[in-house]
Amino acid sequence: MHIHRVADATPWPMVAVPAWRLWDAHAAWPDLEPVKGRWMFNALDKYLALAAEHHTRVLLPLGLSPQWASARPEENSVYHPGYAAEPRDMEDWRNYVTAVATHCKGRVAAYEIWNEPNEKGFWTGDTDRMVALTREAAAIVHKIDPHALVVSPSATMNAGVDWLTQFLRQGGGQYVDAIGFHFYVAPRPPEAMVPLIQRVKQVMEDAGVGEKPLWNTETGWMAPKPFPSEDLGAAYLARAFILNWAAGARAFYWYAWDNHTWVSLQTTEADSRTLRPAGRAYKVIQEWMAGAALSGCNQDAEHTWTCQLTRAGVTRWIVWNELGDRSFQIPAAWHARTATPLLGEPQAIQGAKLEIGQAPVLVAG
To answer: Are residues 195 and 262 in the same domain?
Structure first.
C-alpha cells in the first residue's frame, strides 16, 4: 500500500498493511536533504517507527534530485524544477545514499532507485546515467545493509517496456535484487495487466534476469473519473491483487490509501479513516490470499476466471466474470459447499450452479 500523510493527518489504517511504499509521502531526496549537508529525517523516522509498530515492511524510493544537486535545476518536472534531472555530481548521490542507508539500516526492507524513469516528468536523463546511479546505489546499500534489497527503477505502462528493455540491455539488471514496474492499465480492467506483466517477464528472460523477482511497486486507477461504482472499485482492487499474483508479480503496492484527488478508485472516505468498499476489499483479499499457494488462474471463452488456492491442505477457488453477471457451473470435483462474496458472508451453495459477477467469490468445499 501507499500511504501519504500518516505522519500528520492520516490515521494508521484499521486493516493490516504488510508492506508500504513511501512515495508521495515527502520522503524522497529533496525532502531528506533540501540543502546540501542539511538532513531532515523527522518525517521519515515517524514513518519507520509506525512501520515497526505495525510490523510493516518499508520500500523507500531514492529519487528525485533536489534542486541544489540537479544537473538542470530550472528544468520542469512533475514536482519542482530540477527534480527530474540526474544529479550533477555523482559524489552527491553517493553521499545521499550512504547517509540514508546508514540512518535506516535494519528499518527499511528495500530501496527503489527511481520512480517511472520513462516519464519525462520524473526523469530526463539518459539510460546510461540511470544504470550508473543504480550501480553506485546498489553497491552502497548492499555494503551498509546486506539484508536490504535493491529494486530497479520502475518504469510504467506499455511505453515503459521499451525503457526497461534498454536499461537491462545496458546491464542495469545485474545490480538489483528485484525488477520494478508499474502496471497501470486504467481505464481498462485489471485483466489488462496480465499481458503487460507477461511482456515484462519476457523482457527479463531475454536479458538474462528472469530468475529475479518482479515487483509491481505502484498501480491504481485514476480513470474513469468518476469511477462507475463503489462495488466495481472493490472488484477491481481484488482482481488486481489476484491477477498480479497469478501472472508472476511477487509484490504489489496499491496506490493509494489516502489519495482523494488524483485517483478515482479510492479505498477510504475523505477522512482517510472510514473504509470504502475498496478498502474493505483490501482487507478481505489479504484474508483469502495470505498463507495460501496459488495453483494458477484460467479464463474461459465467456471471460469467467477461476483461480485455485491451497492452504494447509485445503483447496478453495476464486471465481468471477470480468464482463458481468453469469451463471457458473460448479465442477463436481470441487465438492463445493459454501460461496463467500467479496464483501459478504459465506452462503450455503444450493445446486450445481453459482451466480457470479465482476466481484470475486470464494468457493470452498
So the answer is: yes
30 shares its domain with 121: yes
CATH number where 359 lies: 2.60.40
Cross-strand bridge partners of residue 275: 268
Question: Which residues constitute the domain of residue 284?
Answer: 19-290
- Model confidence pLDDT, tens digit, residues 74-132: 999 999 999 999 999 999 999 999 999 999 999 999 999 999 999 999 999 999 999 99
Beta strand residue intervals within the chain, DSSP E: 19-21, 57-61, 110-112, 149-151, 155-156, 179-182, 214-219, 249-254, 293-299, 304-311, 314-321, 326-329, 338-341, 347-348, 353-356, 361-364
For residue 111, give every residue at least 6 positions away whose Cβ sits within 8 Å of its Cβ, in sequence order, or none.
Answer: 59, 60, 61, 62, 97, 100, 101, 137, 141, 148, 149, 150, 151
CA distance 101 to 87: 18
How many domains, the chain?
A: 2
